[in-house]
Structures are given as C-alpha cells and as structure tokens.
Design brief:
260 residues; alpha+beta; Beta-Lactamase; Arc Repressor Mutant, subunit A; five-stranded antiparallel beta sheet
C-alpha cells in the first residue's frame, strides 16, 4: 500500500495537469513525467502511442497488428528521439525484427498493466545485444512501463528508466498515478495524432495543433511559430484533413467528446 503522503502527492499532480488547457498537452505531459521520475528515482521517461492497424491481417503476426505510431522521450540524448536509439527500436518493432523484450507489451494487451525488464525478462537477456545497445550503454539498469488501453485499437504507454532496480512499491506508485487519468492518456494520443488522425502529424503540425486548441487566430499562430500566414493555413488544412474534420470547431470537439 502507498503511504498517505504519496497518495496526496499524486493527487496534487493530477490537479496540476488538469489546470493545463488542451493546447498545453505537451507541457502537461512533461510535468507529469518529470514529477513521476522524481518520485521513483528515474533518470528518464518516454511516452509511446500504439495503434492496432488492420487487426484482420494479424495472422502470424506476434504483435497482433499492433505498431508503435509515436514515440516521445522526456530528455533526448545523443540524437533527437526521431533519429536516435528509440527510433531504431520503433523501426525494429514495426518490421517485426523481434527481440523477446518487444513482446512484453503484448502480455495482457487491452488491459491496464505494468511490465518491466528486471521483473519480466530472464537474467541472460541482460547480457544480450538489445539490452547493451539500448539500455546498458546509457546506464539504464531497469525499465518499467505502464500500459493504458484507450480503446480496442489504441493504447498509451509511459516508460521510466532508472539506474537502479525498481522496487514493487515504486512500480505500484507509477501504476496508481497513471491509472486514474484516462482522460489525459486520451488527450496525449489525440494531440500526438495516432488516436484519430489518418496519418502521423509532423513536428510543425503538432505545434500548430497545440495553438489551434487555444483558439488563437491563424495570424497569431504564424507569428508565434515564425511562419508565413499562408504556410500556417496550409498546415491547418492538412490537420483538418488528417483528423477528418471541416472546421476548428469540429477539431476542438474531438477533445471534448467521449472515447473514439
């Protein structure tokens, strides 16, 4: 059981991220990850949005049609996350270049769950190439993830990386903190694109989307991002197309409606 002080810290954190508006989802996610890292002594955190593409074609697929659509690292290192080791992991996952650790998220898929390297992988895995390439070389001793199903075809996964072995109490704290905020998991998925967008969002589109949700006019968005108004409008049109909406009102309604 968590102590009352720990529960109060988590409840205060929930209140804090609730105060961020929809256009500040990235900042809210960073606040959440930074605070949880401090609570459990993790040095880094990542978020991944997983989508099940065409479940009917998943016969013989160890990932049952699931693919990582978006990965975002709290503290990038060596290279931007879109070009660095997490990108390579994502590409290996998507081309079914399987390592046993890649199957951990499939245990209990569709349910809320936690999984981790030290808890779930055999001891000899830590002498293998995947651990050495993606964990050991950066000083990561243990990694733990919390998986949250948004609907039957979309999941939100927060991962945490530590230079010590996570205790069961620390894992329980992460699970409790991320279990009670389904609305936020869905908001992160929406803002990042994979939940309902027909194609992944570019980095600039994500910035434009965040400002669209603040009701800022296109001219103001262009000024804040250092873009031409015409270029900004092109991004807005692209966002409407990707989300299958015809207006900003319809786009904003996605953040107010129930699960897709």
């Amino acid at each position: 059981m968590l102590e009352q002080s720990e529960l109060e810290d988590i409840h205060r954190l929930w209140d804090e991220i609730t105060d961020f508006d929809a256009g500040q989802t990235d900042a809210a996610a960073r606040r959440l990850q930074e605070r949880l890292c401090r609570m459990v002594g993790a040095w880094n955190s990542t978020w991944g949005g997983a989508i099940r593409f065409d479940p009917g074609s998943a016969v013989g697929d160890p990932l049952q049609g699931w693919r990582v659509a978006v990965t975002r690292l709290l503290h990038p290192f060596e290279a931007p996350v879109e070009d660095g080791p997490f990108k390579e992991l994502q590409e290996r996952w998507n081309r079914r270049d399987m390592d046993p650790s890649f199957l951990l998220p499939m245990r209990g898929v569709g349910t809320f769950r936690t999984y981790g390297h030290r808890r779930d992988m055999p001891a000899d895995w830590f002498d293998g190439p995947v651990y050495q390439a993606f964990c050991g070389r950066y000083g990561t001793v243990d990694s733990v993830w919390v998986g949250f199903p948004i609907n039957g075809d979309a999941e939100s996964h927060f991962g945490f990386y530590a230079r010590h072995v996570f205790t069961e109490r620390e894992i329980a704290l992460l699970a409790y903190a991320l279990r009670g905020i389904k609305w936020f998991h869905r908001q992160v998925m929406l803002t990042s694109g994979p939940l309902v967008a027909r194609a992944p969002l570019t980095p600039t589109e994500r910035k434009v989307l965040g400002l669209l949700l603040t009701k800022a006019p296109e001219k103001r968005i262009a000024e804040q991002l250092g873009l031409a108004v015409s270029t900004t409008h092109q991004h807005v049109v692209a966002l409407f197309r990707k989300f299958g909406v015809r207006s900003r009102a319809e786009l904003m309604s996605l953040w107010l409606s129930g699960p897709c």
